[in-house]
């Protein structure tokens, strides 16, 4: 295929890429459709506050639903582990990580580094 050409959608004849009508068969050619994708901006502060209120809510707000649900399950089991004392360490760590992750993920979404 020569640069600046395309094939007719009806007869397959090679035509100029700017042609609106095929000179061979007379069929109007479809124009390419360009769509601009707009991503919703996330508020990092709100993501952090939601995650501080309950672990996983900030991740869900950021559109990472599976990650938020996993964080909730981990937090639940960590609370159960308080009965054997290890939860006294893991529970605050998971809570702090959830806040940190929600905030940074929202910033990275806004910067276009992550597509949700």
TrEMBL record:
InterPro entries: Znf_ribbon. The keyword Transmembrane helix applies. Residues 5-28 form the Putative zinc-ribbon domain. It comes from the Archaea. The chain crosses the membrane at residues 44-61, 73-97. Keywords: Membrane, Transmembrane, Transmembrane helix. It holds the Pfam family Zn_ribbon_3. This is TM2 domain-containing protein.
């Amino acid at each position: 295929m020569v640069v600046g050409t395309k094939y007719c959608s009806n007869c397959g004849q090679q035509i100029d890429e700017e042609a609106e009508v095929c000179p061979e068969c007379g069929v109007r050619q479809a124009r390419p459709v360009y769509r601009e994708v707009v991503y919703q901006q996330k508020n990092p502060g709100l993501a952090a506050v939601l995650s501080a209120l309950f672990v996983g809510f900030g991740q869900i707000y950021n559109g990472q639903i599976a990650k938020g649900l996993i964080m909730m399950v981990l937090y639940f089991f960590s609370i159960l582990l308080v009965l054997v004392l290890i939860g006294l360490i893991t529970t605050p760590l998971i809570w702090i990580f959830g806040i940190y992750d929600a905030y940074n993920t929202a910033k990275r979404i806004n910067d276009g580094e992550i597509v949700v």
